[in-house]
Amino acid sequence: MKSALVVVATGLYVLLALAGCSVAMALHGTPEPNFKAFEVGSSRQQVEIQLGKPVASQSAPLGCGSCRAPSWKL
Q1: How many CB atoms within 10 Å of residue 40?
Q2: What pLDDT was estimated at residue 18?
Q3: What phi and psi values does residue 40 have, to the nearest 5 degrees?
Q4: Contact (CB, 8 A) for 55 and 71
Q5: How far is CA 18 from CA 10, 21, 22, 64, in A?
Q6: Model-level pTM?
Q7: 34, 52 in Cβ contact below 8 A?
Q8: Residues 43, 48, 51, 56, CA torsion sign
Q9: Nearest-CA neighbor of 48 among 38, 62, 63?
Q10: What is the pLDDT of residue 68?
Q11: Contacts of 47 by beta carbon, 8 Å cutoff, 6+ apart
C-alpha cells in the first residue's frame, strides 16, 4: 500500500514538474513572426523587423555581384 502511494505521489510530482516547465518555456520563448507583414519584393529592412537579423549570409550564385542570400533561424 505504501509503495503504491509513493509511486502515485512520484508520478504526480513528475507530471506537475513537466507541465510547469513547458509553461515556463512557452512564456519565455520568442514570439512568432508576422509573415503577413511583408511579401515578395519587400525590402530587407522590412523582413528584418519581423524575423530579426539573419544568422548567416552568403553570396548568391551566378555571380550576382552585391546580391546576398540571408538565412534566418525560425
Answers
A1: 4
A2: 67
A3: -60, 130
A4: yes
A5: 12, 5, 6, 50
A6: 0.41
A7: no
A8: positive
A9: 38
A10: 66
A11: 38
Instruction: Assign 11 a pLDDT band (cuts: 50, 70, 90).
Output: confident
Inform me whether the pLDDT recorded for 5 exceeds 80: yes
Run of H or E residues at 57: strand 56-59
- 36 φψ region: left (φ > 0), alpha (ψ -120 to 50), beta (else): alpha
Mean pLDDT of 60-71: 63
At 12 the three-state DSSP class reads helix
Residue 15: per-residue pLDDT? 72
Question: Three cell numbers at 54?
Answer: 539573419
3-class SS of residue 44: helix
